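WARN retry 2 of 3 for item q-0093 after timeout on previous attempt; input resubmitted unchanged.
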Amino acid sequence: MFLNLLNLFSGFSLILIAMAILLHYVRTQKINFFFFLLMLMSGISRFHFGLTTLHILDENQPLALRFFITMFLIPPIVFLCLNSFISIKTPLKKIIAHLSFFFTILFARIYFGQINMQAIGIIFLVYSGFYYFLLIRSTLSYFKQHQSVFSKQQLLKVKQLVVWIFALSFNNFIIIIYYVLFASPNKAEAIQSIFHSTIISWALFLIYLFFNPNIIFNEVFQKKDRNRDFSKEFNIWSTKALRKIEPQDSALEAIVRKNTAKMLEDFKQLKPEGIIETTSTKLLSEIANQLNYPKSHLKFILKYHCRFSHSDYLNLMRLIHALTLINNGYLENYTIETLGEHCHFNSRTSFYRHFKRHLGVSPSQYKTLIE
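OK item q-0093 returned
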């Protein structure tokens, strides 16, 4: 009784989510069609299942039983859904190709009539396994290319969403295989067992969506955030000394030690645009003017608590400034070469080298990835 009620409530909630996605599309012309389709299909089937099992709707067979063959739609829909979320554009020809096997099975069902349930289960096992291989390959490739594009917080949300949808579909896949191949020769009993076994994971996913409504409106993958602070995303500083204190610096270490935490915090708050015009030889003087610390203290911090040399630290600050400008639309009006000059890199080669060193892609590739 409880599981039937939960299916009814979850199905209704999924339908409401699908309607919210549709309304958002009417207003903004933006939609992840396959996520909408996944929510709608899951919502209708679970809501109808709840109505029939609770005898609110007087039907001999649940909707899912009459359209049992639609389980072949789920793997390609999940794959296309995640591809759409992670901004991988799928041409119409490929979409048709992904859905062609479902229509082949559907026509076979119509032409041959009743199909052996275990035979369908074996076909579904191979079919789903192929799509999970595609799913893992495409998401791993995407994260490898795009991990530098998102902030740490955004990347965490992206990974959470991928894991959730993957887990939901994989859970459904395992349960379907088990009940179709091994548990019950009766199709109606298998359907009921599948719905009951997967409802908890769907209910938890609904709770997750409740606390992350931006996913419903496909806004979790926004790559441009004008308030993004790139300075906090690079692992520049260490509270502990990164190397053994040299004897000639031991006396200075005793003086600096009590102010290390504050000095590191002040370094983190240092605005890149305030120092990028200087040179590595004048860097200490410029920072001393801005932070009002003795140059010897700053030199000690940079030597033992910074993971970069003076010149590399300066170029990283220039890179952070460049990323901030890109994030605020600089490249909409200027070229990448102009950006490098504006951020005071010595040459185009230097700009590209440091960009690829820290982000794993070239400036032109980065521009393509965020658009």
